[in-house]
Write a structure and sequence with these properties.
Two copies of one chain form a homodimer. Chain A is α/β, with parallel strands linked by helices and 343 residues long. Chain A is built from 13 helices and 13 strands. Chain A has a seven-stranded parallel sheet with strand order 3-2-1-4-5-6-7, with helices on both faces. In chain A, strands 10-9-8-11-12-13 form a six-stranded parallel sheet, sandwiched between helices. The longest helix of chain A has 16 residues. The relative contact order of chain A is 0.13. At the A-B interface, α2, α3 and α4 of A face α2, α3 and α4 of B.
């Protein structure tokens, strides 16, 4: 198939530090190419792909401080995609609502993966959008999208070979995410403190607001011994931290549509203690691959039960349910079904 | 003619405090209706028009803190405009680059007024845009847009009857603009101080960055006597301040595409001391309706020459060159020329 993948322009594909959507777009693109498809990636100029790259800005928007009208790059990218639409069998949009109004005018089908939570204003736009096959990344996200018609739920998947299994952990809890109130960093610190466990925090601090949040709310809680900030983690550092953790703490405070870090933990054999928000109960099986907490104190109490979780089971579940192969199988099948008018 | 006017969504049409583009869109829309045209205004839900209003958000984006995806409202508005395009003879876009990629697919002509400075990323997009008749708001802006083909230069115009002429000023300089480094507020204060003149400052402070700028750079320079901050001005306050000023100080630090406040000052009979940037020399005739300064010190020296300017002349020039009637004549003629394929 001749496939266009349209990525967001905020960070490169694949991302350098944070960027879950761009990570998935990269994995999907490269695997589709490996399977013999002709894939064109529409993304920032500092993206890398073994397929064709089409770009409208030399650097991803968040890496280029010279841009005054960053959204012009986005609209320009969409323009390029529309103009070359006849060269493709299918367009797969990951750029969110920016592309939606254009889909209708195209003569080829558009798959649109909903990567982010759906806000009311976005929802209103999507409900008037035609010629788009919407994919949700969890059943909970699909439910939140009602009455929008969701074609399929496809869970994210990651490369099994990139995540070595670790049978033995090293005696600490891990918080691994952007340092952000919504991600539950304060709750993670409090849960670890109450449970008298060491907590390692890794993740990047984004923007002025992020820095202010870190200085005012997080830094005063660090002691360099039991609560440690390890900076932002590149891929190797992330694997090292995940492999060594007794558990990943994921006290997410929003209706999380997926949460890639949970499946990365499971792939390393690391159980997850998470708040029961959004997609979390679909990804973490309570008592099998981790525990679902109702509150910070509940999470602290659940720490004592971590040894009940078998790390081999975590790995096995991740391989079965969250592999890249399975994800790409599902997208390939969806493209095929659409093109043969089965759906 | 059946005309669609597409406004930006950031502030209402007409604006409440700042918003030059939205002010012009409102004036143009209402005058076209008065002349018998059938005008539909695409704008935020809190906009007012005697024509039809189409909206996708109840409030302008800057007035609605609940929006997480404000750009979805913009894309939605564009979608609505495209879908109803067959109901119009012509679309006039003031929303900037967001609409550009869509113009090509339309069967009706699109006029696009460039309201803002052209940044490289926007320029790249416009150069690939077809089916758009670009209007520049000054000759300097048209020059800055090269090699983009500009159909016409149309200066902004305002309602003569809304600006009473003031033959006599009250002995102060005025700075009237968003409180912003680029607008030259620091230069205005320094020029007034060197010239030993009272300066009244009026204008709004926008966002966190604006507040920080005000607190750190402007507030320490206020003394409540010779340098006074009068807060943000509504329309009546603005007229009062302009009418009483010996001169408007306009030490703009960017390549200003137009600068509506200059023609508002002239309409009240108030001369303008301005930096010679962008469109300024096209609007202010040196020695006739004000003076063009090369630097802050030069501006301070020119203050002594203000009595040489005849306030009647300022008013007369404004009536001749910058009236709403003249602006709407020009846009009407442009629409007509396009529709009869004369251009």
């Amino acid at each position: 198939m001749r496939i266009a993948q349209i990525a967001p322009l905020w960070v490169p594909v694949p991302p350098i530090t944070h960027g879950g959507t761009e990570y998935i777009v990269s994995l999907l693109t490269e695997e589709l190419i490996k399977r013999g498809h002709d894939v064109t990636l529409f993304a920032s100029g500092d993206s890398r792909t073994s397929g064709k790259l089409v770009s409208t800005c030399p650097k991803a928007i968040w890496r280029d401080r010279t841009l005054e009208d960053p959204h012009a790059c986005i609209l320009h990218l969409i323009k390029k995609a529309i103009q070359s639409a006849h060269e493709f069998d299918i367009i797969h949009n990951h750029l969110g609502f920016y592309f939606a109004p254009f889909a209708q005018e195209l003569k080829i089908p558009v798959v649109h993966t909903l990567h982010r939570p759906l806000y009311p204003e976005t929802h209103r736009l999507y409900q008037e959008t035609r010629n788009v096959h919407f994919v949700a990344i969890s059943r909970d996200q699909a439910a939140s999208a009602a009455p929008l018609a969701i074609e399929k739920v496809i869970y994210h998947g990651i490369r099994i070979d990139q995540y070595p299994f670790s049978a033995q952990s090293k005696g600490y809890m891990l918080f691994l995410s952007k340092i952000d109130e919504e991600k539950g960093i304060i709750e993670a610190i409090e849960a670890a403190r109450i449970a008298k466990q060491k907590l390692i925090i890794a993740g990047n601090i984004v923007g002025k607001e992020g820095h202010e949040f870190f200085i005012r709310r997080v830094k005063p809680r660090l002691d360099g011994k039991n609560v440690v900030y390890a900076g932002q983690a590149d891929f190797n550092k992330k694997i090292e931290l995940l492999s060594g953790a007794d558990a990943l703490l994921f006290p997410i405070r929003r209706r999380e549509p997926f949460g890639i870090v949970m499946i990365e933990a499971l792939m390393c054999g690391t159980p997850v203690l998470a708040f029961k928000e959004g997609s979390v109960p679909e990804i973490i099986e309570d008592g099998k691959t981790g525990f679902l907490a109702r509150s910070t104190i509940h999470m602290a109490h659940l720490v004592a039960k971590i040894p009940e979780i078998n790390r081999n089971t975590c790995r096995k579940v991740a391989e079965e349910r969250f592999s890249l192969g399975r994800m790409v199988d599902e997208y390939e099948q969806l493209y095929r079904d659409i093109l043969t008018h089965r759906i």
